[in-house]
Amino acid sequence: MVGMPTSTTVPVSVPMPQIPRRRRSPEEVAAAAPVEGPKRVLLAAPRGYCAGVDRAVIAVEKALEHYGAPVYVRKEIVHNRHVVSELEARGAVFVEETDEVPEGELVVFSAHGVSPAVVQSADDRNLRTIDATCPLVTKVHREAVRFAKAGNEILLIGHTGHEEVEGTYGEAPEATTIVNDPAEARTVQVKDPDKLIWLSQTTLSVDETMETVKILRERFPNLQDPPSDDICYATSNRQAAIKKIAPQADLVIVVGSANSSNSVRLVEVALEYGAKAGHRVDFANEVDESWFEGVATVGVTSGASVPDILVQDVLKLLADYGYADQEEIVTAEEDILFSLPKELRAKLKESGDSSARPGGRVKND
Ligand code: SF4
């Protein structure tokens, strides 16, 4: 049986987008490719919401409650279509850049973090700001500043164009070079191989990052490691959980959005560790029933920005197709909570609002 969801959920007020097609019945799917042996689901735990996402979503919810709509949010607060739509329905306005926000209005910076240039641009427009950057991203920013100030060159392992990488790079652009993958590790040029440190995006594949570092170290033996892991606990734990399930799975379904780095990585890791097939979906109705043909064991997980209600929708669909035997595979317990952004804590205190635990979901949620 599936235990309690490990992550919290955002109330649903936005319906799942409808996909206009006729779904084949379980009998039709079974006739196309019969399944040998019992059908079952292995559900990864931990999965879904991490502490940084939880905090960022609460920050927007609480800003709407205490300042009223509209509350502007630079970029998607977290990379999940459902969460963004739900907050939009409540009055959040998502913009790409601060210059789209009217002067003097309130803007929330997303969990992925911003560069100092973005903070300056908000200041120039007299915007009021709430910084919902995940503290684990802020930690990487601080490392970048500290090591650059000490005269080091930084090799930032991460994906060019990802918001988090833009923010970290922006802390010390003159000292930082982005290394996207092992192939770039083989060709990147540095100024001084003896004053070199690597940092990374928080949501990468643990294995691929280690491979990239190995190549860099072969080329630059004096390369320094970061003081602690930059790939965060949530990314590592979700990858470890799916690694355990993947070798037994004929199919792995990852719930998460296409722009969610850690969700996309989960599909890659599942395939790498032996899943016969792997797919990412935003919503249950994107699951194609042809994926079930001949499939006995389905692994299910979700990215760190995914409310568990979306996973439960997938589990219901799986049960309809005969995968009612659902077992949770627990590889780690998570109890990390982060304090809400300081600007918001001050506002909540002023208003006498004690409904949000420090860093956790709203009570009774
Ligand atoms: S995935 Fe990691 S770094 Fe990103 S918001 Fe969650 S805890 Fe923070």
UniProtKB/TrEMBL annotation:
Its EC number is 1.17.7.4. [4Fe-4S] cluster binds at C50, C134, C232. Pathway: Isoprenoid biosynthesis; dimethylallyl diphosphate biosynthesis; dimethylallyl diphosphate from (2E)-4-hydroxy-3-methylbutenyl diphosphate: step 1/1; Isoprenoid biosynthesis; isopentenyl diphosphate biosynthesis via DXP pathway; isopentenyl diphosphate from 1-deoxy-D-xylulose 5-phosphate: step 6/6. GO terms for molecular function: 4 iron, 4 sulfur cluster binding; 4-hydroxy-3-methylbut-2-enyl diphosphate reductase activity; metal ion binding. Residues 1-11 have a biased composition (Polar residues). It holds the Pfam family LYTB. GO terms for biological process: dimethylallyl diphosphate biosynthetic process; isopentenyl diphosphate biosynthetic process, methylerythritol 4-phosphate pathway; terpenoid biosynthetic process. This is 4-hydroxy-3-methylbut-2-enyl diphosphate reductase. It comes from Zhihengliuella halotolerans. The lineage of its organism: Bacteria, Bacillati, Actinomycetota, Actinomycetes, Micrococcales. The gene is ispH.
